[in-house]
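hey
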């Protein structure tokens, strides 16, 4: 791989010709997805890094066999399903480090196009690209499809603004076996590149609902038999570790509502919930950050709904 760009051979796992120009039409169009306006208009988003791309292409393989190659999504073609992978690029170095990702993409019927690190640099908001990226159709689902009478644990983010926190909570929800994550319209864009990276691939495992209001979520959750709990330490609040002392039943199907990193849940949001629940602090820490508190609540609830 020491040849000059003009004579660089195509890696055996990749498809040529090598993309070298960051202003090539495909990369230029993909670069628009770094902005929320571009993602909203195109209903697509960028996925960067081996773990996230691996899960994206794995899901692609589960969707349906792909007869056409990635990137064939011009006008007049059949609409792609939610979460469909449209384009994949990798550097030869990334293909050497992560051959399993490239093989998984090929197994899902996708071409992985060879590109230089310089060409891919414009598709990342990090200091250095990890050398493997994909363009994917957004995959959020309808609220009514996940808030069913079979749902046992749902995670709701209301006015959560930090992409890293949102992604971490989504990852925890996936690990705890939650039925869905709901990201309200007042929260960060779940397809923000930093949010996507923070999920470490979990975005492709758990159903996600976006752009809904908390009142709508709370109303439908109650109608489907879920209790709506606010993670909020302001009294009156149940103690998460001894909920039975104040009559809280965590074995019931539950929708947890988590608020803003700085100010928590405003009174109007808390009023949408049935009860508030506080994580007890036994040491001298004044509080827990959002992702930590959410992790504790989600896992405590997951334990009880499985009893």
């Amino acid at each position: 791989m020491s040849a000059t760009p003009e004579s660089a051979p195509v890696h055996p796992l990749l498809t040529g010709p090598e993309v070298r120009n960051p202003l090539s039409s495909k990369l230029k169009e993909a670069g628009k997805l770094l902005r929320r306006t571009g993602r909203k208009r195109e209903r697509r988003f960028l996925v960067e890094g081996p773990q996230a791309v691996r899960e994206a292409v794995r899901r692609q393989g589960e969707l349906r066999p792909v007869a056409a190659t990635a990137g064939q999504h011009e006008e007049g073609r059949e609409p792609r399903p939610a979460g469909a992978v449209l384009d994949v690029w990798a550097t030869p170095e990334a293909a050497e480090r992560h051959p399993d990702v490239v093989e998984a993409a090929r197994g899902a019927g996708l071409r992985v196009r060879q590109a230089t690190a310089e060409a891919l640099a414009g598709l990342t908001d990090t200091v250095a690209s990890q050398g493997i990226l994909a363009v994917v159709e957004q995959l959020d689902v309808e609220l009514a499809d996940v808030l069913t009478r079979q749902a046992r644990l749902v995670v709701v983010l209301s006015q959560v603004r930090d992409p890293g926190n949102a992604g971490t909570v989504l990852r925890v929800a996936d690990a705890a076996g939650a039925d869905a994550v709901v990201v309200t319209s007042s929260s960060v864009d779940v397809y923000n590149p930093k949010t996507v990276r923070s999920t470490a691939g979990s975005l492709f495992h758990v159903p996600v609902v976006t752009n809904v209001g908390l009142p709508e979520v709370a109303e439908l959750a109650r109608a489907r038999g879920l209790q709506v709990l606010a993670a909020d330490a302001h009294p009156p609040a149940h103690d998460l570790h001894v909920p039975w002392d104040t009559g809280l039943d965590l074995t019931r199907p539950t929708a947890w509502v988590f608020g803003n990193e700085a100010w928590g849940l405003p009174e109007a949001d808390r009023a949408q919930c049935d009860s508030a629940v506080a994580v007890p602090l036994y040491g001298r820490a004044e509080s827990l950050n959002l992702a930590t508190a959410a992790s504790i609540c989600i896992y405590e609830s997951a334990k009880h709904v499985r009893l």
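The longest helix spans residues 290-305. The chain is about 35% helix and 20% strand.
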